[in-house]
Amino acid sequence: MKISRNWLQTFFNDPLPEAAAIGDALTFHAFEIESIEAHGEDSIFDVKVTANRGHDCLSHRGIAKELAAILMLPMKGDPLRVNINLDPKTDAVAVSIAEPTLCRRYVAGYIRGVKVGPSPEWLQKALESVGQRSINNIVDATNFVMFNLGQPLHAFDAAQLTRNQQGDALLVPGYSIEVRKAKDGEKMVALDDKEYTLDSRALVIVDGNTDIPIGIAGVKGGKPAGISEKTTDIIIESANFDGVTTRRTAAALKLRTDASSRFEQVISPELAGFGMYAVANLIIELAGGETVGFVDAYPVVAEKKQAEVTTEFVNAVLGTELQDTDIEGALTRLDLTHMQDGSRFAVNVPFERLDIALPEDLVEEVARIAGYDKISAIELQPLSDDVLVNANFFAAEQAREKLTAEGYSEVFTSVFSEKGERVVVNKVDGVRPYLRSNLTDGLQQAMLKNLSNKELLGLKEVKLFEIGTVWGVKEERMNIATLVGSQKSAKPNVKEWKGTETELTPISATEYENLPVSSAVRYKTFSKYPFIVRDIALWTPAGTSADDVLTVIRTHAGELLVRSELFDQFEKGGRVSYGVRLVFQSFDKTLTDGDANERMESVYIAVKAKGWEVR
Amino acid sequence: METGHIHPISSLIREANRIFSDMGFTFAEGPLLESEWYNFDSLNVPKDHPARDMQDTFFIKDEPGYVLRTHTSPVQVRYMEAQAKAGIEPPYRVIVPGKVFRNEATDMTHEAEFFQIEGLAVGEDVTLANLKGTLARFFKELFKDASVEIRFRPSFFPFTEPSVEVDMRLVGDNVPDKLRDKWIEMMGAGMVHPSVLKNAGIDSAKYKGFAFGMGLDRLALLRWGIDDVRHMHSADLRFINQF
């Protein structure tokens, strides 16, 4: 979520620290910062608000509240702690909620006589700083309050809604807003000019007098009742919609919006009142007009909650030695009002902090405000009992030891296969959807790949093994498989390979053996280009060692030589014959025969100069 | 005859088991094809959580309620439950190295199947400070030639409270340039959520615990400077025979 430093500053009299310091404060006490970018004289933070704080922190006010606690900077005033009144009430608009569990509150505000026009510069700049386009003063006001307080809002053009002509039409316009489930196949053109087809899992806002949808609840408003330059009378919506329903609808319509991403995190219905209060005031300020009144459909008022914690419990969880005053201090900094009885704290959980219920939740609050750097590194007490040896792991380790000693290397192949007994229904890439029923198929694929590199690897035959999970019709088991492969003709032939596959038998033991671990220091990237193999055979005088021969060859073969080794050696008639295999490869390109010939030519010249005879 | 090579992940697991075993941790296992109860519900991940959406988790045809486990954490509950049923009270200490799955396209840093190591310690007096001490010792022994620093940052996981991200910094001349003096994000961790203890049949008023989950592929990448996580499942001896 984008957060502007200048915007945050509006919550404080004292100047905020530099952007980097704000970033650190949030990183170590609240949320990860994905990035900090300069934006003119402003800095924009991309704050990764955690899922448990989507209730209260997807707004500048939320982040300012955190900073106030972390940096101990007093807030100028917290818009969620002021007394609000949504007066006067009006019966010019009727609100009915058919699904009170999916829409826990719907506040409508009716304002007449607004003048739609461009927003003032401060508002345009504020919205642009968080990546929003300024539209007009009414729409901008609703967006501003959402990014400021976290409450999504929407404004309808009242003139586009139908009035109930019964009753006193002059005094009572008779607008009606209804929240109900969509009908399967019901359509609505949204503000983005696209037509969306809804189903009965979605919630819609309808014009109660016509039963026609004017908004997809919590996601997007409808085009017909949108604000235009001609709009003079508006009905503002500040509501609370169910998280799961909003998320499913937004996902199904591929229409994730700033509003839906807030509702899907679940926000308190209490917030709707503050959102309406703020936006109505801002609209009157920006666009004039007169508030006719408010309607507040709020069937079940959210309960006030308490949470308790003791200093002893905090220390028992964290392994710290915090004092009562430390706990008191952290709670006060977080504006968590509380009653203290010695080392016991009873916190009145603020309505927006839906994440706080358990003592452990308060421990986390204290820990992050006190700072995780205050927690020492203390090792666990030794246990009196011996550690039990895992018989499967022990058996696997024994097998690894035995097989590597025999020249086998361990591979991990994919559990996904082209055939098997069980199948994944939703594999994102669509290929190899089965769970493997054996290891051998995967090993054979691996063998093909490795055989073509056997000269590069310096291997006459390739020996592979795998220890891994396979699936039968009902069961899951651990198998061990080996495969030895060589390539005698131009094409590899699976029939020439030899392998085994059995279930791994657990081995009981009382102690693990001390087996060697890899001594590799750094991995070296290998070339993706093909290599070329050349052999050379030489007659040398008696007394010439293999090392002598290899040294001369390696010195003159050039930098493309990646492997060289003796493959043949015999004596005859007082002379020694050596056969050496050279492997050439480049990191930059596919080598040609010409490239290899050129290097071999240098080698020939060098060995001839030594008086050796090329056979 | 030339000897073969064990996979670098196997080497890491061998090393991790040795270090943790010295600290009293038992090697535990669980199925890869796991029930949604153990993989999600028992770990306090609600039914409607986005992580349970189809696009992140592999589901199996005709086996509703089962998934390819998305983390090694289900073994936390399985292990505690089995101990409790056998009448064995905490302390419990286990590590769970093993394969886990995410339903995503693969690239240089993402694999659909990869390895994690889970750690769990439960007892009457286990604290977050013990988590820091345990991880500090693990990294110190793993990166023998370096001096290791550990720090926590706030985070969120449904199955731990408080939750932290664990960063590590290696200092010393023997540390490769790419790693030296840099804070590196290593894993998520925290104190086991009381609901998770309850779901496993453990008295959460009496016992507490810490848990962590670390990506082994990523640890291998850092340890040996490996440039592409896909090497891990490539079965390519040009890679494996370097270890």
Features:
heterodimer; A: 615 residues; alpha+beta; Phenylalanyl-tRNA Synthetase, Chain B, domain 1; Phenylalanyl-tRNA Synthetase, Chain B, domain 3; 5 domains; 5-stranded mixed β-sheet; 16 helices; 28% helix; 26% strand; B: 243 residues; BirA Bifunctional Protein, domain 2; 7-stranded mixed β-sheet; two-stranded antiparallel ribbon; 7 helices; 9 strands; 27% helix
Summarize the structure in words.
The complex is a heterodimer of chains A (615) and B (243). By secondary structure, chain A is an alpha+beta fold. In chain A, the strands form eight sheets. In chain A, strands 4-7-10-11-12 form a five-stranded mixed sheet. A four-stranded antiparallel sheet of chain A has the order 6-13-5-14. In chain A, a hairpin with a 2-residue loop joins β16 (338-341) and β17. The model of chain A has no long low-confidence stretch (mean pLDDT 94). Chain B has 243 residues and is of the alpha+beta class. Chain B has seven helices and nine strands. Chain B has a seven-stranded mixed sheet with strand order 1-4-5-9-8-7-6, sandwiched between helices. Chain B has a two-stranded antiparallel sheet with strand order 2-3. In chain B, β6 and β7 (160-171) form a beta hairpin. Chains A and B meet through α2, α6, α9, α11 and α12 of A and α1, β1, β5, α4 and β6 of B.
Assigned CATH architecture of chain B = 2-Layer Sandwich
Portion in strands of chain A: 25-35%
Say what the CATH topology of the largest domain in chain A is: Phenylalanyl-tRNA Synthetase, Chain B, domain 3
- The number of strands of chain B is 9
- Main β-sheet, spatial strand arrangement of chain B: 1-4-5-9-8-7-6
What is the SS-derived class of chain B?
alpha+beta
Rg of chain B over CA atoms, rounded to whole Å, is: 18 Å
Topology diagram in text:
The complex is a heterodimer of chains A (615) and B (243).
Chain A lengths: L1 E3 H5 L9 H11 L2 E8 L2 E7 L11 H12 L21 E5 L5 E10 L8 H9 L7 H13 L4 E4 L17 E7 L5 E3 L5 E3 L5 E5 L4 E5 L3 E2 L12 E8 L1 H10 L5 H6 L6 H18 L2 E8 L7 E6 H8 L5 H10 L4 E4 L2 E6 L9 H12 L20 H15 L3 E2 L5 E2 L4 E2 L10 E2 L4 H12 L2 H4 L4 E10 L4 E10 L12 E6 L28 E10 L4 H11 L4 E12 L2 E10 L8 H17 L3 E2 L1
Helix pairs in contact in A: 2-3, 4-5, 5-8, 9-11, 10-11, 15-16
Chain B lengths: L7 H15 L3 E2 L5 E3 H4 L26 E3 L5 H12 L6 E10 L11 E11 L4 H15 L4 E11 L2 E12 L11 E10 L1 H6 L8 E8 H9 L12 H4 L3
Parallel strand pairs in B: 1-4
Antiparallel strand pairs in B: 2-3, 4-5, 5-9, 6-7, 7-8, 8-9
Helix pairs in contact in B: 1-4
